[in-house]
Amino acid sequence: xxxxxxxFPTPKPGDxxxxxxxxxxxxxxxxxxxxxxxxxxLEDSDGWWLVDTGLHHPDCLRPLLTLIxxxxxxxxxKAVIVTHHxxxxxxxxxxxxxxxxxxxxxxxxxxxxxxxxxxxxxxxxFSEFYRSTGLGxxxxxxxxxxxxxxxxxxxxxxxxxxxxxxxxxxxxGDREWKALVTSGHSPGHLCLFSEKDGLLISGxxxxxxxxxxxxxxxxxxxxxxxxxWLVGLEGLKALPADVLVLPSHNHPFRQLHDRLDQxxxxxxxxxxxxxxxxxxxxxxxxxxxxxxxxALKGFxxxxxxxxxxxxxxxxxxxxxxDETLIKGVRYFSxxxxxxxxx
Length: 342
Hints:
single chain, alpha/beta, 7-stranded mixed beta sheet, 5-stranded mixed beta sheet, 15 strands
């Protein structure tokens, strides 16, 4: 359910809706929850910039190419900007680059994450990682099948032609977009902020009605993405509270600071819950089943396990938890007389 009022009519799949001068909201269908992805078209004096590209899947690709071709009668597509490497954002970037000869702007860490995800080495560490969480062989096999399906949702990756980083400024039309790079949901998630017009293209970093997954991934089993995520959310509080937020899912909204506080609070509630449950040692999967009892098998289970481990690694970094390895499985327990600092 939406937390904030709908400020604009929702565009039909493949259509567009103006949200500011020269900024257009496009929505494409996804074959899985939340059922849609928001892209944005930015108008330049001599062409168009496209922010994100949707899945390499007919539900996304057909209306997207139809839209781009309709634009070419006026002005050409100039460039693609990708907020992060997940397939609903990067999936069609390589195909668009090949078809229209445009540069792709992406953070280096995101491009490298995509290369790793599609490489054989990623799948080699996949099974070992999930065994260490306590997941059984049958569930791991199901996740492997799911990951092979996910990899099919990318067209061949684009050439990295434009690396972008924090503080870079893209001048599009008469508007300057400043690059803001955070991590946690992904290793180098890109947001774009126009101070002049009070606009924030937030990608998956800030969503009004759903919560972005923050997971530990197979390539970095002891990473601390939750700490990175919380730091990133706090950093966005430097922006004006009344900016118009243009997210990758749900509807554009205002009240940025209110939403940031809600997202931060949610994770602190989960951290407190983890401590309550770890009065006895538990493996990651057993804990995830209590934190996220509605998570089904397959991809949903991987999200639940990855996010559970993110909370565990965060607490362990604060010396609140003890970790023991038993037959290759990681078990965690609470160290008494410790508290979580805000």
